[in-house]
Amino acid sequence: MELQMVHSFLESSAAARPDKVALVHDGERVSYRQLNRSASRLAGFLLQRGVLPGDRIVILLSNGVKYAASYYGVLKAGAVAVPLNVETGQETLGRLLDELQPAGIIVEQGGGHLLQQFHLVPPSVRFLVAIDTSVPGDEPRLVWGWDEALMAEELPEGAGKVSPEALASIIYTSGSTGQPKGVMLSHRNIVSNTRSITQYLRLTENDIQMVVLPFFYVMGKSLLNTHIAVGGTVVINNNFAYTASVIRQMAEEGVTGFSGVPSTYAYLLHRSPLASFRDRLPSLRYCTQAGGHMPREIKERLLQVLPPHTKLFIMYGATEAAARLTYVEPERLPEKLGSIGRAIPGVTVRVLDAQGEELPDGACGELVASGPNIMVGYWNDPEATARVLDGNGYHTGDLGYRDADGYLYVTGRKDHLLKVGGHRIDPQEIEEVLMSSGTLLEVVVLGLDDPLLGKKLVALAVPLGGNPSDRTLLSFCHARLPRHKIPGEIRLVAALPKYPSGKIDRASCLALCG
């Protein structure tokens, strides 16, 4: 019988291979039996606290064993898992909790006291599970320790059963185009996307995934679900700032898969010993990239530096798609280097005009996706939902075209287009040219308000080492771009502001220019 619920992946793998290592983190090695038992006991605790199907449970934890147990435990109880960034600011966290009205919160070390101290706990919250807390006292009380919560009896499998159409998780977008929106994903959404990803990556129980992306980010969540689904092993490393330690652990653990966003790979190429380790990564079967456009220069360099047996999957997706929409087969990548590929199994991606009509090959329009993985909508925001979901599917906001072979290309975003002196310009084209100079780690091109031009182009660039001058880079642009696409200014900076997922935070970059 086909599995219909997200937590069924864990239960099935625990039944099939109970003693297999599911998670590795900071020296801790947890088997599928142990992980499943912890999740079931947490689910039992949640039901004892009166949690009902559809109740939101906020998870404010860093990547780790307790995060995984919490995520699957919440789902086993029939509740909705809402992972949030542990570094969310007080004001934003208060707004999100007010918006979510959660029944409970599972919080990082020290976080339970902070939430109460800042009066961020809304009246809907009936309990806090705090990792480092053990509070003696009589019922009723608000704060429980993790170990206390796991003293509950295991929830019998199927006890918290809900429909596959029921809400499983609310994942917040990074807010790159405004306030973060809560993307509602059903069990069906996540299960269908998980199956598709395991199919095209050909994942098996022998796969060992290195995870450096946060689990509250949709791609991180996807890495956890896909490898738990096949009975593989997830190696969690929260120290990507120390890239050498990540590469070393990949070699030690025999990691078969690594995943990242463009900045992850830029730092691996230029700020890590990846090139010198290529002979020590015999097990590295594949690398995957998503999370936005990766410059051609980085892709070409990766193909040279990765071990010859390692396949590179370039992928495209969205939080609203439960993660994945398209991928480029590694064997086609050299000839389709600028492409985001073709739709994954079970998904359709079309190029539509403003009237919703499909456009012919080569014509530029909006990429619109449909399939069982597309979100239910945005939490408490029917207007925003109606703007992106209609009878044609999910309107990604990305502009692009399809070539004669059926491969899709993204040329930019509708909301990133800049009007400069009457010209509509997509910054991605200029960023691509600047990166091709080979002298930059990363770059972002922004539009600053200008009374004459409407917007003035400014580039923030992180140099690799030789510290190219802004004049050298401007001369490089002059030779390759029309005059109206040349930045008025190039500012060299030590680093670009980023979201916790590793994506560039354009709003904070703009603030830097102010």
TrEMBL record:
Keyword entries, A-Z: Ligase
Pfam family, one: AMP-binding
Superkingdom of the source species: Bacteria
Domain AMP-dependent synthetase/ligase: 11-379
Membrane-spanning residues: none
Domain AMP-binding enzyme C-terminal, first and last residues per copy: 429-503
GO MF annotations, alphabetized: ligase activity, forming carbon-sulfur bonds
Protein name: AMP-dependent synthetase and ligase
Record organism: Geomonas paludis
